[in-house]
Design brief:
27% of the residues lie in helices and 26% in strands. The chain is of the alpha/beta class. Bound molecules: flavin mononucleotide (FMN).
């Protein structure tokens, strides 16, 4: 019974880009597919997610490595990656050990940098190694949602078949397993049944209570200071209420996803899509 309840709750969190993510998914057969998890990670957050996927699917796993690795000092990573973005020169990768032709599905994990996939993963995608492959991107981030990186990946690398995706904020890693499980179930890589999620209701002006939920959720992240709630839609889940706010800061609008659980815990934001 406990297991069933867990499966029902699995993956109400975070942002996933399944094309039919709101529809009920049929129970899946156990994985018969050969799965590889490739990931890039500097501070090991994305590595944790990669290892979880590996454990749940029995996949092979490999870290994407650089010939000249980045520093682990935040400001130095920002400085070097900013220069590389400006110059368009991508970091050189060590050759992968895995033969990608041996796999049916390849998970590709990255931290979000400047709203999109980190440069080492851009280097991998640009190499053409994933062309023609079925890929499930996953990411961790401070606040940004995975959507921009997926839009850019599909636009820049149309030969890659993106099956699904999942992103998790680094401060919400306790909710990562449920978010990942939802994708694994939807892709038939593990057994289970995902809860069918309703569409968000139409956007309307937030009530005082909704504005308070918004302000409480964004107050945990200083970079969101000064962001105001313009409108909101919501949906009820077995866990509580999901909100999709349109927020505004300095004239720029963004979608901010917030969950308020029935448990009474403080509301938290799961992604910001700019
Ligand atoms: C160069 C750089 C740029 C970043 N840009 C963003 C960003 O645009 N949005 C965001 O939410 N987080 C951003 N982050 C935070 C990382 O995405 C986040 O800390 C991630 O979980 C790190 O993953 P890792 O531990 O696997 O390296 C950035 C971090 C770095 C170093």
């Amino acid at each position: 019974m406990k297991k069933l309840v867990f499966m029902m709750l699995a993956g109400l969190f975070m942002m996933s880009c399944a094309s039919k993510q709101n529809n009920e998914q049929p129970a899946a057969e156990p994985a018969a597919k050969k799965v590889l998890v490739l990931y890039y990670s500097i501070t090991n957050t994305t590595k944790q997610m990669a290892e979880y996927i590996q454990q749940k699917t029995g996949a092979d796993i490999e870290a994407i490595e650089l010939v000249n690795p980045y520093s682990t000092v935040y400001n130095e990573i920002i400085q070097r990656s900013s220069q590389e973005r400006e110059s368009g020169v991508l970091p050189e990768l060590k050759p992968l050990k895995a033969n990608l032709d041996n796999y049916d599905v390849i998970f590709v994990g990255y931290p979000l940098w400047f709203g999109t996939y980190a440069l080492p993963v851009k280097a991998l995608l640009s190499s053409g190694a994933l062309n023609g492959k079925q890929v499930i991107p996953f990411c961790t981030s401070g606040s940004s949602g995975i959507k921009q990186s997926i839009d850019e990946m599909k636009q820049a690398f149309p030969a890659i078949q993106v099956l699904d995706c999942v992103g998790v904020r680094s401060s919400l890693m306790d909710k990562m397993p449920a978010a990942v499980d939802r994708v694994l179930i939807a892709q038939g890589l593990i057994e289970g049944q995902n809860e069918a999620l309703a569409e968000y209701s139409a956007q309307q002006a937030p009530t005082a209570e909704e504005t308070e939920i918004f302000n409480t959720a964004i107050s945990t992240y200083p970079m969101m200071n000064g962001t105001t709630a313009v409108s909101v839609g919501s949906r009820t889940t077995s866990l509580g209420t999901d909100y999709k706010f349109v927020g505004e800061a300095n004239g720029a609008k963004m979608d901010i996803y917030i969950t308020k659980e029935n448990s009474g815990a403080a509301p938290y934001f799961t992604a910001v899509d700019r």
